[in-house]
Sequence to fold (206 residues):
Amino acid sequence: MQLMDAINNRKSIRKFKKIKIDTQEIKQIINAAILAPSAKNRQPWHFYVIQDKELDILLEKVAEGIENLSEEYKKAGISRPDIDAAYHTLESMHQASAIIIITCKKKYKESFSDGVNWYLNALDIETTDILSIGAAIEHMLLKATEMGYGTLWVCDIFYAYPQVVKYLRTDDAVVSAVCIGCSDEFPSVRSRLSMNEVTTFYQSKE
Fold:
């Protein structure tokens, strides 16, 4: 598969066949991520691969966290449809053959007090680390697509942030998760903004 084929074929998959992916294939996907560019070559990423029965343990914790946060806002009379939508993501996560959680290895002292407790405050150096991890995740998605697997880039784990970091036993900042599996759906291409809408060219006139 050529690079542009992988780019065009990559889609967010929310229905997976419950077929196990060999660990060696997971390693190929992570190897692609490791080759991503990173600011000052800091390589700030760490990958936690969750498979088999560990998936059920992790997702039980995620469900608990989502429920706790949802109840807090309900008691305060606040509607949070974004948290409600996380339950649908959880269903997709249960179908995945593997979930890879990506953390930022650098430790931060401060955290937000919005119930998510994410350690990153988006300082300039933190932002470059997140950009680096984003590049690594994109490498993972495209490699998995090249190998014929479906992926789902998940950030709804933030709604269960305390539970996830406790499960991982880490003080590093959790950035995202990627679900990988054999696709059980073939979604159509979602609309994209046109080149004219998102691009400005500065060119000298001849």
Remarks:
- The chain is about 45% helix and 15% strand.
- The two ends are 40 Å apart (CA to CA).
